[in-house]
Amino acid sequence: MRKSALYPHPIVQYIPLPLELLSRKEPCHIKPFLLLGEEIPAHRSRLQQEYDWDLPALLPSGAHLPILAGGVDLLEAKYRGFYVIFKGALRPCLSLLQIPAKYFYKTRLIFQVKKENGQKLLSRAYNLPA
């Protein structure tokens, strides 16, 4: 089984997660960050004020996990164990996306954004709501 710099385990051990783009604002020169789930509404007014970006309303749903990515473009997502790994690239934008949550079998996850060469752009932990 072939490994890559992006995915440290054999690729067949990862669950591919479809990324659904809900909204994007460009250009926004901002340091890379991720906001996940219920963190997003808490930053809505700041994003509106600083970037003149009206986020679409997010309806609470256990079926999808919303993701707000700043300063990075998320191109692909795969899940294995505790890790959700995004193939990404630096990009001056804000993006609101969602991924299906039904595949997660752990409640504490590490979200990482990496370049194709495996260079980590950002990483953060997140606890799924109960």
Overview of the molecule:
With 130 residues, the protein is mostly beta strands. Helices cover 9% and strands 48% of the residues. The chain has two helices and seven strands, in the order E-E-E-H-H-E-E-E-E. Strands 1, 2, 3, 4, 5, 6 and 7 form a seven-stranded mixed beta sheet that branches. A hairpin with a 5-residue loop joins strand 6 (108-114) and strand 7 (120-127). The longest helix is centred in the middle third of the chain and has 8 residues, at 44-51. The radius of gyration is 14 Å and the shape is globular.
Number of helices: 2
Q: What distance separates the N and C termini?
A: 35 Å
β-strand number: 7
Helix content: under 10%
Question: Low-confidence stretches at least 5 residues in length (pLDDT < 50)?
Answer: none
Structural class: mainly beta
> Strand share of the residues?
over 45%
Would you tell me the overall average pLDDT? 91
User: Cα-atom Rg, whole angstroms?
Assistant: 14 Å
- Biggest pleated sheet: 7 strands, mixed
**Bulk shape:** globular
Order of helices and strands: EEEHHEEEE
